[in-house]
Automatic annotation (TrEMBL):
Domain called Lipopolysaccharide assembly protein A: residue spans: 24-81
Name recorded for this polypeptide: Lipopolysaccharide assembly protein A domain-containing protein
Gene Ontology cellular component annotations, sorted alphabetically: plasma membrane
Keyword Transmembrane in annotation: yes
Record's keyword terms, sorted: Cell membrane, Membrane, Transmembrane, Transmembrane helix
TM ranges: 7-25, 37-62
InterPro entries linked: LapA_dom (IPR010445)
């Protein structure tokens, strides 16, 4: 049941972000280190959300990897003691 609620919550968040993005279609100036460019605000919003989700996913994967490594180490120590 938890997975269904997570899916529903994710869909609601995606719909809110999509609606917010569609409303904001005006061009904006994006400044880079080496220059600037005109981009539609919808692309800036969607790009920021995607990069944030990617960064959050990568950090989560790193934490999971660290926890799995610690679990294996603890399991090896338990096996060694018994």
């Amino acid at each position: 049941m938890k997975k269904e609620w997570n899916l529903i919550l994710t869909l609601i968040i995606v719909l809110v972000i999509a609606a917010f993005s569609v409303i904001n279609v005006d061009p904006v100036t994006v400044n880079y280190l080496f220059g600037e460019a005109q981009w539609p605000l919808i692309l800036v919003i969607i790009g920021s959300v995607l990069l944030g989700a990617l960064l959050g996913g990568l950090l989560s994967m790193l934490k999971i990897y660290q926890l799995q490594k610690a679990l294996k180490k603890a399991q090896a120590e338990i096996d060694h003691l018994s």
